[in-house]
Design goal:
By secondary structure, this protein is an alpha+beta fold. Helix content is 19%, strand content 28%.
């Protein structure tokens, strides 16, 4: 069992900050593991397909991405949740696509947002392993939405 954390709501300062990178000394620590567990539990409790640490009042560069089919994206892949530490988009397609987004920090609002269709992301595992992975479609949209949270940007600012 893990802790369910409260979600910061639109207008709160923590959602406007540039989140701090996780330091080398923080990898493989109990606190980073516990943060990831609590983030995933909170995302699942809220039926989300992603979450970023600033949404639970922790201004650190940690996100979770967990695509699954849903009424808006019935063909979305079912993914194991991926925890990304210090994620960076290192390449993106020039092709963009409009798609519906929601946000756990902006309840009851949905909107069409233009995002790169395909991205390549460099990130670190909780143990500090460097991973480079490409995403397209809905998972790529979730990654971009979550990285926006790390940079103090909400999807409503992109509409
Ligand atoms: O970061 C968050 O606030 C979570 C957010 C992730 C997200 C959803 C849709 C597009 C991009 C990013 C959510 O999980 S909102 C709730 C949700 O499950 C959902 C909303 C719209 C379409 C599909 C799912
Ligand atoms: Zn969001």
């Amino acid at each position: 069992m893990s802790i369910i954390l409260p979600i910061a709501q639109r207008g709160e300062d923590v959602l406007k900050l540039i989140a701090a990178p996780v330091a080398d000394t923080e990898f493989s620590t109990a606190w980073l593991q516990e943060l990831a567990k609590a983030l995933e539990a909170t995302m699942l409790e809220r039926n989300g397909v992603g979450i970023a640490a600033p949404q639970v009042y922790v201004s650190k560069r940690v996100i979770i991405v967990a695509s699954r089919p849903n009424p808006r994206y019935p063909d979305a892949p079912e993914m194991e949740a991926i925890t990304m530490v210090n994620p960076e988009i290192i390449a993106q397609s020039s092709q963009t696509v409009l798609g519906e987004e929601g946000c756990l920090s902006v309840p009851d609002e949905r909107g069409q947002v233009s995002r790169a269709e395909q991205i390549t992301v460099q990130f670190f595992s909780l143990k500090g392993e460097k991973i480079i992975q490409s995403f397209h479609g809905f998972p790529a949209r979730i990654v971009q939405h979550e990285i926006d949270h790390l940079n103090g940007v909400l999807f409503v600012e992109r509409i």
